[in-house]
From TrEMBL:
Annotated source species: Halcyon senegalensis
Coiled coil residues, start to end: none
An example Gene Ontology biological process: proteolysis
Gene of this entry: Agbl4_0
SUPFAM superfamilies membership: Zn-dependent exopeptidases
Start and end residues of each Peptidase M14 domain: 1-232
Molecular function per GO: metallocarboxypeptidase activity; zinc ion binding
The protein, known as: CBPC6 carboxypeptidase
Active-site residues annotated for this sequence: E195 (proton donor/acceptor)
Keywords assigned: Carboxypeptidase, Hydrolase, Protease
Cofactor(s) required, per the database record: Zn(2+)
Family: Belongs to the peptidase M14 family.
Keyword Hydrolase: yes
One Pfam assignment: Peptidase_M14
Length: 249
């Protein structure tokens, strides 16, 4: 069997990317984006191999399974909007959040683990394209560093809009994963909400909207995964095919 990746050897420092999706059951596109991330990361693609060697991805693809099963639009089985209860989730009323939050706090307290990214995937009912929400910090340098990942993603994904990406701290969003974990984790961690339109994306210029398909959502997921290669400057480690291949986006 192939030897374990360096980042999984006992005692190795781990850089962790934590991804969650489908906290709102009606936002089905978030599942397709998450599926794209997972399928890419477990594939034999040369970029996926490098990512697995250098990063640990922890993914909770469905934070609200009860709501999905029941066909709810926003709430859990007990009528809670789970994305407003991160601050103090109950093991009884919000069990998925409670479990994920405990795991994140355990990792945060482990000196061998650097929890570098938290990305929560949603779908948006009025905006076009993919875009992100980030947090606002007093520290200007930290604020600038937080903008790096969405800028790189914008270069990799034609349907991702940096101009729609925004950084906020309005009170309505205080109980969301991004906001709560952004306040809990230290300044080397980046917390985002990744939003993708229910409908369409508009390519550069005043073109007409292109309807999203399941495949296009999954492609956005693949592009999110690939962006970590650029972020961590791992491009030189990717095995190049011997024959030139057409560049795919």
């Amino acid at each position: 069997p192939p030897s374990a990746a360096a980042n999984l050897r006992p005692g190795a420092e781990q850089k962790v990317v934590f991804i969650t999706a489908r906290v709102h059951p009606g936002e089905t596109p978030s599942s397709f984006v998450c599926q794209g991330i997972i399928d890419f990361l477990v594939s034999q693609h040369p970029i996926a191999k490098v990512l697995r060697d250098h990063l640990v991805f922890k993914i909770a693809p469905m934070l609200n399974p009860d709501g999905v099963y029941l066909g709810n639009y926003r709430c859990s089985l007990m009528g809670f909007d789970l994305n407003r209860h991160w601050a103090n989730p109950s093991p009884w009323a919000h069990p998925t959040l409670h479990g994920v939050k405990q795991l994140i706090i355990e990792m945060y307290n482990n000196p061998k683990i650097n929890l570098e990214f938290y990305i929560d995937i949603h779908a948006h009912s009025t905006m076009m394209n993919g875009f992100m929400y980030g947090n606002i910090f007093e520290d200007e340098e930290r604020f600038q560093r937080q903008a790096v990942f969405p800028k790189l993603l914008c270069q990799n994904a034609e349907d991702f809009s940096y101009s729609s990406t925004s950084f906020n701290r309005d009170a309505v969003k205080a109980g969301t994963g991004r906001r709560f974990l952004g306040g809990l984790l230290n300044d080397t961690s980046y917390c985002y909400t990744l939003e993708v339109s229910f409908y369409s994306y508009i390519l550069g210029g005043p073109g007409s909207p292109v309807p999203y398909t399941e495949e296009a959502y999954m492609k956005l997921g693949r592009n999110v995964a690939r962006t970590f290669l650029d972020y961590y400057k791992l491009n030189s480690l990717v095995e190049r095919p011997l024959a030139p291949t057409p560049k795919t986006r």
